[in-house]
Amino acid sequence: MTPERMSRDSALLQKGPAMRSAAKRFWLGHAAILLGLLIFPFVASPFLTYQIGAQALIWGTIALSTAFLAGYGGMVSLAQMSVAGAAGYAVAILGHSGTESSLGWHWSVVVPVALTVAVAYSMLIGWLSARTGGVYTIMITLAIGVAFYYLALQNYSVFNGFQGFQKVYPPTVGGVQLTQKSNLYGLCLFWAVASYAWIVWLARTPFGIALQGTRDNSRRMASLGFNVIAIRILAYAVSGLLAGVGGILLVWYNGLISPGSIGIGVLINVLVMAVLGGTRHPFGAFLGGLVFVLLQTFAIDLVDRERFNMLIGSVFLAIVLFSPDGLLGLWGKLKARIGNKRPT
């Protein structure tokens, strides 16, 4: 056996326990977070449970669709809130609401149709923007989002114009009234955890690895025989499903949907959430959603409501300047610095 082979085998043996220890910490950390989210409604007030917890989980799910495209695919889309709004409008139009134009279909039919609409709409966006990159992708997706906003604002026969749809309440499923705040929080938690686990698993599949390959070098992937455009469109379909789930939960949470729900400011806010938390890991989307909801709820005690956007912009600028990887990047740097100070 050559010395090079012996040194390589020795390095692998030394890395084995470290990798098992890191995996153990990974699962223990996730289990602790999940346990904390499960007991949160029992120790927190209804205001914190509903206004902070449920809303952060919903926005985190929508931001996860943006973070997935940006972090794993290298595609920054500003149309994800538009996709979520399409699912929300589908629920309001096809289901029950306080508007006479709603069709009144059963929720078991409405929800799958709304998710199908979100996935199809997202794939259309992907088909239009997958051949571009960088600022061109941002501009195309922004234009699509703005176009959908004005369509909903000016169309009265389908989208009911600027009034939108009121009294779009969640259904009763198996005797469980989702209109109750604790039950709706549980529903949001279930789908947030399912979305997070799905993306973590998907990133390790051949599709996830191929998507990351197209992010790093699309020309080399194409030369290896991969259909780069198809991979990107499929990534948009995945993000559309995530955004659709978040859009349905959001319209049930607010009890309404209107063009203001998919305005330009909201389109940008979703991107801000994804970047605040960090796009390198799916957990960053929920962390960014939590920070945004906390600022949105309690910033009125610090600044005037008219200056909220300035506060969000300042926080966003500070995090981007000091950590391009968002809050997760700051946490990683802090752990690395603490680890370097420990005696070996």
Q: If you consult CATH, what is the topology?
A: ABC transporter involved in vitamin B12 uptake, BtuC
How many H/I helices? 13
Could you name the CATH class?
Answer: Mainly Alpha
Outline, from the CA principal axes?
A: globular
Give the ordered list of helices and strands: HHHHHEEEHHHHEHHHH
| Helicity, as a percent range | over 70%
Structural class: mainly alpha
Q: Examine the secondary-structure arrangement and name the CATH architecture.
A: Orthogonal Bundle
Largest beta sheet: what is the strand line-up?
A: 1-4
Proportion of residues in β-strands: under 5%
What is the terminal-to-terminal distance? 31 Å
Radius of gyration: 22 Å
How many individual domains?
1
Overall mean confidence score, pLDDT: 86
Largest sheet: 2 strands, antiparallel
- Total beta strand runs: 4
Q: Segments where pLDDT lies below 50 for 5+ residues?
A: none
Textual characterization of the structure:
The chain is mainly α and 344 residues long. The chain has a single domain, classed as ABC transporter involved in vitamin B12 uptake, BtuC (Orthogonal Bundle). Helices cover 74% and strands 2% of the residues. It contains 13 helices and 4 strands. A two-stranded antiparallel ribbon has the order 1-4. Strand 2 and strand 3 form a beta hairpin. The protein is globular. The two termini are 31 Å apart.
Short description:
With 344 residues, this protein is mainly alpha-helical. The protein has helices at 3-43, 46-73, 80-94, 107-129, 135-154, 181-202, 206-216, 218-223, 228-254, 264-277, 283-298, 308-322, 326-341, and strands at residues 165-166, 172-173, 176-177, 256-257. A two-stranded antiparallel sheet has the order 1-4.
